[in-house]
Structure formats: C-alpha cells, structure tokens
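Re-run with default settings, no changes from the original entry. Doing this only to confirm the output is reproducible before filing.
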Amino acid sequence: MSEKLNIILNGKKVTGEKGETILTVAKRNGIEIPTLCHDPRLEPYSSCFVCVVEVEGMKGLQPACSTRINEGMTIHTHNEKVKAARKTAIDLIVSNHYADCVAPCKETCPAGVDVQGYISLIEKGLYSEAVALIKETNPLPAICGRVCVRPCEAACRRNLLDEGTGVGIDYMKRFAADFDLASATKYIPKLEPKTGKKVAVIGAGPGGLASAWFLQQKGHQCDIYEGAPAAGGWLRYGIPEYRLPNDLLQKEVDNVTELGVNIFYNKKLGDNLSYKELNEKYDATILCIGSQRGTLLGCDGEDADGVYSGIDFLRNMEITGQKYDFSGKKVVVVGGGNTAMDCCRTSIRCGSTDVKVVYRRTEKEMPANPIEIHESKLENVEYLFLNNPVRVNKDENGKLKSMTLVKMELGEPDASGRRRPVPVEGSEYDIEVDYILAAIGQKTEINFLDDINKNTANGELKPNRWGDIDADQTTLQTGIPNVFAAGDGVTGPATLIEAVGQAKIASRSCHQYLSGEELKPEPKEFISRKDNFREQTKDEYVIRYQQQMRHEMPTLDPAKRLNFDEVELGYENENVARTEANRCLECGCVEYFTCDLKKHADEYGAEQNKFEGDFNEYNLDFSHPYIEIDNNKCVLCSRCVRICKEVVGAGALGLVNRGFDTYVAPAMGESLTETDCESCGMCISACPTAAISENVLFKPGPVKMDTFDTVCNFCSVGCEITVHHKGGFVMRVTGKNGNVNKDGNLCRFGKFGYRAINDAGRITKPLMRVNGKFEAISFDKAFDVISEKVKSGANKNAFFAGARLSNEDIYLVQKLARQAAGTNNISSFHYLYGGEAYANNSMGNVPFDQIKDTNKVYLLGSEINMDNGVVGFMINSANVPVELITEKEDSKMKKKVSSVCKVDSYYNFVKAANHYLLSNGMENAMFIGDNCEGFEEYKKNLLAESYEDLCKKACGCQCKCIENFAKDYNKELNAIIVFSEKEISAATSKELFHLAMITGKLGKTANGLVSLKEKNNAQGIFDMGARPYTGVGGQCLENKDFAAKLKQVWKMDAMPAKIEACMADKFDKGEFSNLFIFGEDPVGCAVDKNDIENKIAKADFVMVQDYFMTATAEKADLILPASLPYEMDGSFTNTQKVIQEFEKGIEPACELDSTQQIIGIMKKLGVNGIANSAEAKMEAIKLL
C-alpha cells in the first residue's frame, strides 16, 4: 500500500500519498490550481510558473505541478502573494502573445454579436444554428440584416485588402435570418422555468423588444406597453418599407411574442398609462422609450409652412398610410445621416424629381451608410456638400419660398474626429425650394418623470444634462432601484444595434435585481489583440490573402423604384452566402471558449500591455493536412514537443533557439510533412492554447459546440471519443478517458477520421438501378424488391455483414439470413477467406493495461503507429525494449524500436521458431499438459518438416535470427508479441498461438499475445454468429442444445438444414444468385479489385447497404443508405472482447436507420418481434 501523508491545504487537513504532487492532491480536494505546462500524461515540466503555491518553511513560491508533498506540509494555494505571482507570470506570457482572442467585428459590435462564429455556421449551411448564435445577443437579425449601420463591416480587416469593402456581414445575417424565418423548424429558444416575477417594458422598439426577449427566457413574464398602434418603434415609424418591409418587421416581433411576451398598444406612459398602475402590477420596469422627437434647422424662418422635421415626415406617412404628393416639387433634405437618406429617397418615391441633400461637410464625413448614399444617387438625388442653411425664406403668407445657404470649408477636427466645417465668408446664396426636411437630430421626451416620481417610494428618476434618462452606465439602473432604462432614451439618438446592446445590459441587471443578486456589470474579459502590439497594415494582408471580391447585393432596378417595394433583394442562393462567408479572414481564435491561457488571464485580470517592449511575430504554418502551427499563440510549455517524443515516440517537433527567441518547429525539416509525424494529433490535444490546432477543411469559428460520447468506429482498439458538433456538422473529436484509452489518447483515425461524417456525398435514400442509372425509390419499394429476391430460393442467397456494423446489426443480418431467408449462407468478406484461423485471436489476449508491466515487446507484422496508434503509445510509454519483426524494407516502425529483424515470411518465421523450441525440448510441458489438447500430433507433424527449409523460407537461411528470437521470448519473464491481422495470414496467426502455448505464456499476466484486428467490430462477426456454421457466442449450429434454443427463441419449427463449412468456394464459383452486402466494400478494400469485382458480377442481383457510393455500391442493383454509428444505438466489441455500448448522438441522415431497415426487410419476409437494437441485444443474450 502507498504511504499516506498528512498535510494542511488552505487551512484544512487532508491526506495524500507519498510521491503525489501538490497539484494532484489539490485537484482531488476540489481546489483548482491554474497551470499551462502541466499535462497528466507527462512528467512535470515547471516552465510556466502559473501554478505556484506558497509552502510554509520553503523559500519562495513552489510550482505545484512538480513539488511533492511531505508529511506536515502547510500549503497556501490562493493567498494574495500567490495571486500576485500568478498574475505576473500570465502578464509576462501575454506580453508576447501576438494574437487576437476575438475578431474586430465582434469587438466593434455594440451588442457583442459573435460575427465570426455565425459566419462559420453559415459557411456550413447551418442557418438556424447561425440565427440561434446571433439571437444570444441580438433577437432581431432579419431587421439588423437590412438596416444596421454595420460597425462590424467597418472594422473588418478585409478592408485592408484592395477590394473596396469588408466581408458582407449584414447580407449573410439577413440571408440566414430570412432562411430561418421561412423554415418549418425555425429557431425558438428554450425558456427557463417561470419565476413568478413580472416586468413592464415601456416601448416596443428595438430596445423594448430585445429586453423582453432576454428576460422572458429567464422565466420572467414580460409585458410591453407601446404608445403607437403597432410595434417596432423607429423601425416601423422611421424607416421606410423599401428598406425594412413591415411584414418582415412583424415576423420578428411575432418571434418575441411567441415566447409569451404580451404587447399592449396605444398605451403611453404619462398619458393614458400611469406608473402607479405599473408599480402595483410589476416587480420591475424597463424604460425603452426611444428618442423620437424631431428637431428643426435652428435658423431664422424655420417655422415656415413647408418645413418639416424629417422624423415627423417619415412617421406621419407610416401612421396615416398616406404618402406625401411631391410631384413637381423641389425638396431639400438637410443632414448627412441615415435619416436624411431615408427622407431623400422617400421624397423621390413621393413624386419629386428634384431632391437635394444639403450637408455641411464632404461625402467622406457623412455618417450615413455608404450603400444608402450610393443607392440614393442611383435614384437621382443630388448632393450639395460643404453647404449649410443660414435661414429659411418665406412669402407674405408664411409659406416656404427659398433657402439661403452658405458655403463651408473644413477646418480642424472636432470631438468626433471629423474636420470642423467653417463658413466661407461672402459665399451665401439662395435656392428655390418647396419643402425642407430637417434630418439633423432627435430629442427624447420624458414628460412622464413627475408621474413616476410621485408614485415611487424609493429613489428618483432624473434626466441627465442632455435631457435623456439618467441611468448607471454599467448596469442601466436608474435612480429608482426597480426601474431600468435602455436605448435611445438613455443615450440620445443612436442606432438599432446600440439599443439592442443596451437592452442586453438592462435585462441582465433587471434579472439580477429580480433574483435578489447584487447588481454587477459583465465581468471584464481579457482580450488579446494584435493591435496592442502594432497597427495592422495593408501590405501584410495583401501578401497573405488571395483577393476575393465581395458579392454585391442584388437590387431593384432604379427605374422601378417609384414605390416602396424592398430595394435590396437578398442573396440569390445558398452558394452565394457560403462563398461570401469564405471571405472571412478568421481573425478571432477558434479556441476562444477552451483556451487555458485566456481562462487564467480572465481569472487573474491579466494586462497585455503591462510589460511592453519586444515581441515575436511568426507566420502560420498550414503545410500539414491535419495540423497547423501558430507560434504567435505559443506559451512555450513544450507539451506538444514532449508528448510527441515521450508518448508517441515520433519526435516530430522540437524547440528552436533559446530564451526569448525560442519557438516550436518541425524537427529536422521546414514542414511537419518532412518529419516522422504520424498525424495522430496528440500535439493538438496537449496544447493549452491554439498554437497547435487542427487544420480543418471547413471554415473554423469560435463556436460553442454540442457534444456526445461514443466509441471510435475505425480500428479494433475501441477508444472512447467525444464528438463536438453543431447541428450534426462535426467540427472536432477529442479523446475521452475511456475503458481502453484511460488517458484520453487518440490515434489519427479517432482524431481526424470524423471528416467523412460531413461528406456531402452521403447516400440518404434507397437507390435502384434502372436502365443503367440509379434512381431514388422508397424504402417500402426497396424492401419489396429484396423480399422477392430472397424468396427466389433459400440457398441462392448469400448474406454478408461488415466488421464495422454494430453487434446488434450483425445479429440481425444473420437472423435475417437464417430465420427470414432460411439459409446459413451468412458470412463477412472480412473473414470470408481463412477466417476460421482468426476466430481465436481474441482469446487469451494480454489486456492493454498490462503492457506497462512487460519486460519486452515484439512487434510482428504490425505498423502499429499507423494502424493502432493508441496501443503504440502504450508500448512507447512502457519504456521497454521493442523488437520489430517485419517483412517490409520501408517499415515506418524501424525508427521507434530497439532492434529490427527483417524476415521474408512471417508464417515460416514463427513456424521455424516453434520447430526450434520443440526440437530442443524447450517447451513448457506442464503448461501444455494443463491447457492443451492434440499437442503430440502437432509436435510430430511440425518436427517432420525440415527446419532448414523453414529457416530458408523465413529469413534466407539466417537461422540465428530465428533462434535468438525463440530463446529470448521463451526465457523472458514477461514478454508480449503484438501482431496485426491486417499484416499476417490466418495460418501465421495460428502458429503464434502455438508459440504462446509452447512457451507457457498464453493468458498469463503481462505475457503472451496481443492480437489487433483490423476493424472496430471484427470480433462481433464471430460473437454475433455471422459465420455459416456458428451462431451467437461462436456456438456450433450442429450442437443440438444450441439448435433447440434457437428454435425456441426464434419460434421456428426447424432451422436451415444445410451448413456450409466455407462460403468462399461457392462465392468464387458464382453459385450465389443474390448477394446482400451490409456495411462492407469488398471491391474497394480488395488487393485484387478486378478479381472480387468479377466474382460479384456473377450474381444476378446485388444489394449493398453503405454510407457512400463505394466501389462495391457502384456495382449494385439496389443500394440502401447506411447509418453512421453516431446516428443510432448499439455496441462494438473490441479486439480484447470488451463490449462497449454507444448511443445516438445526432439525427440520422436518412428516414430509417440501418437497424430499422434490416427489421423492415424481415417484416416483409414475415419475421416480426424485434422493434429496435435494444430488443436485438436482449434476444442475442438469451441465446448465450
């Protein structure tokens, strides 16, 4: 037993075991100590000093990852001294972290919408998922996609390229939102349980709608009171329909009310709605009143008849439903913002052919969206830049006659950064005008102050110095504790997205208030920025990125715009949206949600500019097909270098230079592809940041993914994995600490093999060959066709179950053959030739976790690093001598082993070794006597053969090599032979079992054999009875007791009488008329493809069930769409007979999953009783 030690950890007495580190003991006791360089799979490194702790009596602070506990040790893990030291360590690390945590587009968005995230989802066609991500922070994406001022696009680094514009963010948002609105399964957020709290929201504009959206999801009942007859606020009453159609606006309003939000119209606070009533009915109030009172020109004569506020002009048209008649009239719009654009373009639609915009600066300084300016010019709006109204001239009846303008010139910049316009002396002139629309500003009406203040007992609602509602800038709580405010009513006239951003803050604070929590603003987040180091320049981006021009938004022909039809028509199709998504430069980090450095930087309040000075900048390395290296994000923890060397044994990575200039690079080459890299991805799993990450085929993004755990469906090791996906699109796979891979390690197949899941070439419907071409048919018709073929004659049919199928499906295929079709012609191409000799390969296997206890490992015919990498990691980590016995001159294992024995024939090598041992009386007679039958006959037959001939065939007469192996293996106390079925024959496999028996090692601890099957469920072929002469559990069909049990469970009068010893001969001769192949591609997997293809062609009818159009499927007459293991329930049995169950993680791509299809075929043939895989499993158990 391990020695127990008593220590004091943060004032609490705890126990640990001798040899344990402080980090290990702290973690077991629920204390998280931050670390960057530690990996439990590796020995402590102590390079980052983020994990330091204080140990009383020891000088200085100690790294928790490498400091072992001692009896009586007193440790402090989180005192102020420790926290300060950790912050300093992190500050130093981030001071040389030339990388962006977040893309500029997200940082610039007032609502903090994850632009890069939803663009990555749009690129994958996940539109509803993209909308769901947007609506986490902005519930009005279809509206924003039309009328947002797009600060994100202004910040887009694509602007640094010579393309004229950034990424079309708003256009893509609009496309996804419109797609979702039209979907039968549009996104609807989940609501938390009702709290019993009620909130009154004043105003159904963007701020009010957003506040209600967020709070309703928290379980609070929200009621909106709107002074106008319809919802939308300025969105409806200030933005013309040619930009924002009312029916579209209403759809997004409906999305809010569908959550249970009520809207009461024609209710104006301070008028026909009193705060007294609200205070009695509601627990809190949010004021989202907007800023909708228009202002005039501020010059003499502005009271003339014909001068309007632009705000009033637009509002009146919406309220009355009547447009102004400006036919033959001259209209001047004063202002340079989006309201001015709406006024001038609306004036054109009201019949004027003479519309001018007067703006006191140049076009460059106009705050309006450049697209709006461009479109207005197409509609024949004229511009008078560097002009400003001086006075309005009216006739004797007070009617507008003309306007006096003064020319301006630009002086010094003002507070906004724009150059201040200065009048040019003596430049005044008059222009004739019939109507003036002043679009120069808005004011907030807060005439309800007295009503609120006289009906509240706690606090006071006050205006600020600009006449807007006074509220705390960080929480948006007003002077009255249960009253909050958001939007233009707080900020003054701003933008839609700013109102939404404010609503997010106000609703968060309101939720805290209703929950009885202290009001706290969103915690300050650490954000690493390249701009903190230097300005991003055009030159570097032009070199780094290929030019790809923005796809322009299709618009209504300018000649057809004398109406209020929507001008911007939306992207033409999905391909356009996805193409535009690919213009995104992926500025933000894909590990935003998982980065350990960011997590610790957030916790300790890291400051990137605390230690200013030199920093390193590196180019990204995308040369490897699976792995990308970004040394800008590297923290020099060396975990990638160490795991590649110590666990994988490849040594493909190394550290270059020393000190400040150190960086990670491929060892002995410019690219990882030039090294001994095995593409296992273990370096990615070790990296605490995104310095080494996956080089994916799709557009990555910082997206919170859904996950499910399952079993890897590639090799036979049976590693458990966690699949990370969004909407069924798999974005990564990570290792799970599983039954077999206890440390979560994965090989290249488990790590990167998921890419096929996303392949658009999946077969999703049954396909029937008609006149040489495949046509989609229904499952019912497909089952009819199969049923008719099966009925043509029992023994004309042959059924094949692939080694990648689940146990349940293999069981059902053999049941289909025997019970429904009446034949024992059931096998697997995987074992069709010589499978009998492989049947015992999983018997007496050395458990994987005993590999570490062996003294020597022999690899025979196994490219284990490439085919079964995780077992290779176990062998490499055991740190014992490894001898490779191989037929291959170019074996990739040669560099990873202690010694190599080159042979010509595995079979003759093992057989010669057995001969040598027996001929010299070196067998373990006692073991053989207790565990073996037929030994004497085997010995007699073997010794009758020529030892010299066996040696010659094995190694070209090099008997010494064979003898050394035989003696070493025999005398080694703990020795394991690891072999792969993929590389050796069935006969060789049999001789290896003889060798293990002869030496007395078979089945002993850390001794004997490790057999590695090729496929994930090759063992299931034997266990589930997919053999012509054996049933479930490998029981012989000729066994009367088993046959009786089969008849009883299956409720059959008689079993198929004919039992073939081997189906291979009949297949080769073309004696099967109908082939039913489930989950196999014998043509694609064959060494001699033409031979297998010709043999399959002898059949009259071929049915294949598979995921893709494989080489075998191409030869089929009927194809059924197979389900991926992730789309169904089931189990696999690994090479060591460990049964591991898995559950459906994503929805099937086809109407019926594989199991349901087999059940459906059986029903057509009159076999009922099993409804799903669980029932199939239970029935199989009954037969054991």
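The longest strand covers residues 400-413. The longest helix spans residues 496-514.
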